[in-house]
């Protein structure tokens, strides 16, 4: 029989490791945006606010891309860090989760508010991975009807991990002339007529 005796310090360490692992982001992402997004994900997970923070960051991103005044505020280097921090607190305090407010004030204090769109996109990427979502985009020369879209989706099934939740998008790009281009995660498959013409051109040359 094997008997293991843990000291109180060991038990604390084990519990700390377990709690930390439980809130670890589902992807290993690197770079400035990822550093802030990862920290935000961990903080949101610990407060059971992952979805709320995702919604709030998407709303902030939408404002940053649709409002020239807000975008100017985020990017303006002439506004001091202290003034930006105060403005952020005035705008968001009591209207967002503490996690989102903390992220925005930290960004303001570090003169990084202009990075919020990229940080929001990275956070959304982490959330999609948590939900087991796989993005797939079908690009066609003309709009696909429901029957055509369903047929392509059925043919793509073998490309998805078992149990994956597929988020399918369709786009129209007349320049491909015909056929399809398919993007699944970071994989790209070009079945367009345009690419075939280019291939023939290269062969002839």
- The DSSP helix count reads 9
Give the uncertain stretches in residue-range form: 1-6, 11-18, 200-205
Mean pLDDT: 82
Q: Structural class, from secondary structure content?
A: alpha+beta
Question: If strands are numbered along the chain, what order do they take across the biggest sheet?
Answer: 2-1-3-4
Tell me the span between the first and last alpha carbons: 76 Å
SSE topology string: HHHHHHHEHEEEH
Residue share in helices? 55-70%
Please outline the major beta sheet.
4 strands, mixed
Radius of gyration: 23 Å
Q: What coarse outline follows from CA principal-axis ratios?
A: globular
Number of strands: 4
Strand-residue fraction? 5-15%
In short:
The chain has helices at 8-22, 32-46, 50-66, 68-75, 81-92, 98-109, 116-130, 146-155, 193-204; strands spanning 133-140, 165-172, 179-184, 187-192. It is an alpha+beta fold.
Please describe what this structure looks like:
- 57% of the residues lie in helices and 14% in strands.
- It has 205 residues and is α+β, with helices and mostly antiparallel strands.
- It has a four-stranded mixed beta sheet with strand order 2-1-3-4.
- The longest helix is centred in the first third of the chain and has 17 residues, at 50-66.
- The protein is globular and about 55 Å long.
- The termini are far apart.
Summary tags:
disordered N terminus, disordered C terminus, 9 helices, alpha+beta, single chain, 14% strand, 205 residues, globular, four-stranded mixed beta sheet
């Amino acid at each position: 029989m094997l008997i293991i005796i843990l000291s109180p310090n060991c038990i604390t360490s084990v519990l700390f490791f377990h709690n930390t692992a439980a809130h670890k982001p589902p992807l290993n992402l690197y770079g400035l945006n990822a550093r802030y997004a990862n920290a935000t994900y961990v903080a949101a997970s610990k407060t059971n606010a992952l979805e709320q923070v995702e919604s709030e960051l998407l709303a902030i991103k939408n404002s940053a891309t649709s409002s020239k005044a807000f975008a100017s505020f985020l990017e303006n280097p002439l506004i001091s860090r202290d003034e930006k921090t105060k403005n952020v607190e005035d705008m968001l305090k009591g209207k967002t989760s503490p996690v989102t407010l903390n992220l925005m004030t930290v960004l303001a204090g570090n003169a990084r508010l202009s990075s919020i769109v990229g940080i929001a996109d990275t956070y959304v990427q982490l959330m999609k991975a948590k939900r087991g979502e796989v993005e797939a985009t079908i690009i066609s020369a003309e709009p696909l009807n429901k029957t055509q879209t369903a047929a392509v989706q059925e043919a793509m099934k073998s490309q998805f991990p078992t149990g994956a939740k597929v988020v399918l998008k369709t786009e129209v790009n007349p320049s491909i002339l015909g056929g399809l281009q398919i993007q699944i995660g970071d994989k790209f498959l070009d079945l367009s007529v345009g690419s075939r013409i280019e291939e023939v051109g290269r062969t002839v040359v």
